[in-house]
User: Fold these one by one.
Assistant:
Number 1:
Amino acid sequence: MTNKPIKNNTPVDRKNVKNKAKEVIESRELDQIEELSIRIDTLVELLSDKGIINKKGYINNVMMRIHETSKAKSFDECDEI
């Protein structure tokens, strides 16, 4: 069996292709939470790649801390009532 390239016989509207290439996609402004999340993700990736931290351990630690904080806040709200 030979590896022959598959030909795509669908017609191409060259005018439409040229117009799509001219469209400019502008980026949107990120809010502070999105930007901070990207920065932390990037930092964790870099530290994990260099072997400084264990990424899975970090993620587990963060999830546990988020859960503890959320629970503490709900107890505080119950105490205020």
Number 2:
Amino acid sequence: MIRFTMPQICGNAPLYTMGLFAALNRRVSHLQLGLQPDTLKYWHHVVLADAKSRAPAWLQDKINVKQDPHLPMKFSLDISKRATSYYMMAVDAHLEMMPNSTRLYFLRVCETLSDEIDKNLV
């Protein structure tokens, strides 16, 4: 009769394995912090304020971001085509200060905006 035993992950694991799990846990936790609704809301507010300060007065009221009350990770960007360049410049100005996952989120937002503009030009 052959018996298989499952290796114990935590019981007899070498110390370097436990350190690896702890480091991995810290990295994942850090990445999760960048995608929390409060963090995204804060960075949307920072980018929105900067975009409005860059835009001319007649375009400032055409740049808005709304957070869905039922789905806190969902944001609606209501922006004029003429104001998208100011929004993208504001995102570029703040990318270095953002956490990595938040930075990737805003890069995706800019990519989506660019795709929408290109789609409307063709």
